[in-house]
Amino acid sequence: MDALELLHGRESAARLQEPAPDDSQLAAIVQAALRAPDHGRLRPWRFIAIRGPALEHFGAVLAETLKARMPEASA
Question: How far apart are CA 73 and CA 70, in angstroms?
Fold first, then answer.
């Protein structure tokens, strides 16, 4: 498949859910991300994978932060 075709057909999921990428899939995703060009030569120097119970905790922290910034936000 052509790279431009892939980029033009890309869609983001509204809500992510299991199954998440396994270790080998995640390694391939990170390797691709490290090679992706950016507008200001600010290539990421680290990635953080949040898995298991920490993922639920992180979601709760994000929800609390949003509620603090935007009290009118829906659940």
Answer: 6
Mark out the alpha helices in the chain (DSSP H runs): 3-8, 23-35, 53-69
Q: Residue 41 carries which DSSP code? A: S
Q: What is the pTM of this model?
A: 0.57
Given a contact cutoff of 8 angstroms between Cβ atoms, the answer to whether 47 and 55 are in contact is no
d(CA 40, CA 59): 30
The pLDDT tens digits for 19-49 are 889 999 999 998 888 887 777 777 667 788 8
| Radius of gyration (C-alpha) of the chain in whole angstroms | 16
Please state, in angstroms and rounded to a whole number, the distance separating the CA atoms of residues 67 and 33: 31
Please answer whether residues 73 and 67 qualify as being in contact, where contact means their C-beta atoms are separated by less than 8 angstroms. yes
